[in-house]
Write a structure and sequence with these properties.
Length: 274
């Protein structure tokens, strides 16, 4: 009994230490974004002045606008293509399925640096060959969609695996046309996975730096690239902390929204079951 209690306490201590290791740097960044002194090592006060200066800078607002535009556009397209890919994988039961799945999910495990460089080389070669696309928001969008698709496909495929195949045959037996099946059956069933996949894709796009850096062009500076440029020129300043804090808040809002949607859905499931 004492040994079991000791194991539980050790597990709790490790969990707390892990959470502190993950969240403490973020808390430090947010805390020092409210520090009045620019070169302070310790917290001496509280101010919103750095946030006001950030919002007065047109470059940051433009970068934020491009990040949101890029994130929403790529997430919508990535969700549609990823969902279709997941449906295709679910229906395919031929030889070489493991190899096909590995090819689909390879961008998830591939290092961002390698993926970003390969995208840059490909776009440069394509531009020299046919004159399109020019480095900028278009190339960044294509690159973001390409690495979002596997994540969305993974989420939607996990939903499809737990789906009873008899429901699909039942819809066909009830004379549902293909379009009617999509509207009345597939979309309601896959709605939670589609929402989760979209939010995941948007979050990945919003905070991506490496791939965006290699595929960006003049005038296509997203918020992560803007933060990196600010640090490269001026070092870590309270303004940088304020920008990073705003980005952390945006990502947390998306994550909380996804959690709320899941909790609400699970509550409905529990209510229906009861």
């Amino acid at each position: 009994m004492k040994r079991t209690s000791l194991v539980i306490r050790i597990s709790q201590s490790v969990a707390i230490a892990t959470l502190a290791f993950l969240w403490l740097p973020l808390f430090v960044v947010v805390a020092f974004s409210f520090e009045p002194e620019a070169a302070a090592v310790h917290l001496t006060g509280f101010t919103f002045a750095w946030y006001e200066r950030v919002w007065e800078q047109g470059g940051m607002l433009h970068a934020l606008y491009l990040s949101v535009e890029l994130g929403l556009g790529s997430a919508i397209l990535g969700t549609v293509i990823g969902a279709l890919l997941a449906v295709g994988l679910h229906r395919y039961r031929g030889r070489g399925f493991a190899v096909l799945a590995l090819i689909v999910y390879l961008p998830i495990v591939m290092p961002d640096v390698i993926y970003g460089i390969s995208q840059m080389v490909f776009f440069n070669y394509l531009h020299q060959l046919i004159g399109w696309p020019r480095a900028g928001l278009v190339t960044m969008g294509i690159a973001h969609v390409s690495f979002q698709i596997p994540y969305v496909a993974l989420v939607v495929y996990a939903r499809l695996v737990g789906l009873d195949r008899n429901l699909v045959h039942a819809a066909a037996d009830l004379y549902a046309s293909p379009w009617k099946s999509v509207y009345a059956f597939w979309l309601p069933v896959l709605k939670p996975a589609l929402i989760a996949g979209f939010l995941l894709a948007f979050t990945l796009s919003l905070d991506d730096f490496v791939i965006s850096f290699f595929t960006s062009g003049p005038g296509s500076v997203t918020l992560p690239i803007y933060i990196w440029g600010t640090i490269a020129r001026h070092g870590v300043t309270p303004e940088t902390n304020a920008i990073a804090s705003l980005m952390i808040g945006a990502v947390l809002l998306v994550a909380l929204g996804q959690t709320f949607i899941r909790a609400r859905r699970n509550g409905h499931l529990l209510t229906d079951t009861a």
